[in-house]
Amino acid sequence: MSPSPLIVRTVPTLRRAVDNLRKRKATVALVPTMGALHDGHVSLVRLAKRRASRVVVSIFVNPTQFAPTEDFGAYPRTWKADIAKLAAEDVDIVWHPGVEAMYPEGFATRIVPEGPALAGLEDRFRPHFFGGVATVVGKLFTQCRPDVAIFGEKDFQQLRVVTRMARDLDLGIKIIGSRTVRERDGLAMSSRNVYLSPEERQIATTLYRAMKESAGRIRAGEAIAPAMAGGAEMIKAAGFALDYFEVRHAETLAPANSRKDGPLRILVAAKLGSTRLIDNIAV
């Protein structure tokens, strides 16, 4: 049986623990999470272990990235199962701060990202989101001081925002994106999938099928506009309320009008019942 990871809840304790790893010449990888861990998170941990000798996983449901109308209170929290998963993967440290440790009384400083954070994708529907993400990730980086940090490609705009922030602020941390882990039928693994009813769970695979179909049509030489229109209609016909279904430049997230506009990425966000799902694939 794998030993349980060291669980720390205060910044001084965390820094002492990381300093002890450094004294043994360890390299450190950070995997930021909000808990409710699934196989997608496990894949991030396994990539972290390949890229560093020691691994810190943070578990913190960050209130500043939720709007008042969103699901902060209902967000799934599965602490015992999470720790069991991390112990099985031989994670070294779990950083599990309370809200008061991350945002103590009088907290008044926030990071306001631009660039990919203002691409007109998630930010169009959740204008508060990337400020909350950038602030909490910036704090996690300065608290843990890792050599590398691992983020999933499923939250592709977030990955681009964090990469840009680390570069712009000279944080000295290498940001590594990890491929999206999918269920056998193609649905991207997400902690929010538990909100789907059995019927909705079957319908949810439409997002991946629509992206694949549109990407195939673009690769075959069809113009972007009609190729994407077909996928959007497929999504709406399945019963989704579509927020966006777009092709963007894979690095800058700038709008793309043709295959000549660089490496391309299809990104989608849509609501099925009360559950909002996001996904993306490379073209």
TrEMBL record:
<feature type="binding site">
    <location>
        <begin position="34"/>
        <end position="41"/>
    </location>
    <ligand>
        <name>ATP</name>
    </ligand>
</feature>
<comment type="function">
    <text>Catalyzes the condensation of pantoate with beta-alanine in an ATP-dependent reaction via a pantoyl-adenylate intermediate.</text>
</comment>
<keyword id="KW-0436">Ligase</keyword>
<feature type="binding site">
    <location>
        <position position="65"/>
    </location>
    <ligand>
        <name>(R)-pantoate</name>
    </ligand>
</feature>
<keyword id="KW-0566">Pantothenate biosynthesis</keyword>
<feature type="binding site">
    <location>
        <begin position="152"/>
        <end position="155"/>
    </location>
    <ligand>
        <name>ATP</name>
    </ligand>
</feature>
<dbReference type="InterPro" id="IPR003721">
    <property type="entry name" value="Pantoate_ligase"/>
</dbReference>
<comment type="pathway">
    <text>Cofactor biosynthesis; (R)-pantothenate biosynthesis; (R)-pantothenate from (R)-pantoate and beta-alanine: step 1/1.</text>
</comment>
<dbReference type="InterPro" id="IPR042176">
    <property type="entry name" value="Pantoate_ligase_C"/>
</dbReference>
<protein>
    <recommendedName>
        <fullName>Pantothenate synthetase</fullName>
        <ecNumber>6.3.2.1</ecNumber>
    </recommendedName>
</protein>
<feature type="active site" description="Proton donor">
    <location>
        <position position="41"/>
    </location>
</feature>
<keyword id="KW-0067">ATP-binding</keyword>
<feature type="binding site">
    <location>
        <position position="158"/>
    </location>
    <ligand>
        <name>(R)-pantoate</name>
    </ligand>
</feature>
<dbReference type="GO" id="GO:0005829">
    <property type="term" value="C:cytosol"/>
</dbReference>
<dbReference type="InterPro" id="IPR014729">
    <property type="entry name" value="Rossmann-like_a/b/a_fold"/>
</dbReference>
<dbReference type="GO" id="GO:0005524">
    <property type="term" value="F:ATP binding"/>
</dbReference>
<dbReference type="Pfam" id="PF02569">
    <property type="entry name" value="Pantoate_ligase"/>
</dbReference>
<keyword id="KW-0547">Nucleotide-binding</keyword>
<keyword id="KW-0963">Cytoplasm</keyword>
<dbReference type="GO" id="GO:0004592">
    <property type="term" value="F:pantoate-beta-alanine ligase activity"/>
</dbReference>
<dbReference type="GO" id="GO:0015940">
    <property type="term" value="P:pantothenate biosynthetic process"/>
</dbReference>
<feature type="binding site">
    <location>
        <position position="181"/>
    </location>
    <ligand>
        <name>ATP</name>
    </ligand>
</feature>
<feature type="binding site">
    <location>
        <begin position="189"/>
        <end position="192"/>
    </location>
    <ligand>
        <name>ATP</name>
    </ligand>
</feature>
<comment type="subunit">
    <text>Homodimer.</text>
</comment>
<comment type="similarity">
    <text>Belongs to the pantothenate synthetase family.</text>
</comment>
<feature type="binding site">
    <location>
        <position position="65"/>
    </location>
    <ligand>
        <name>beta-alanine</name>
    </ligand>
</feature>
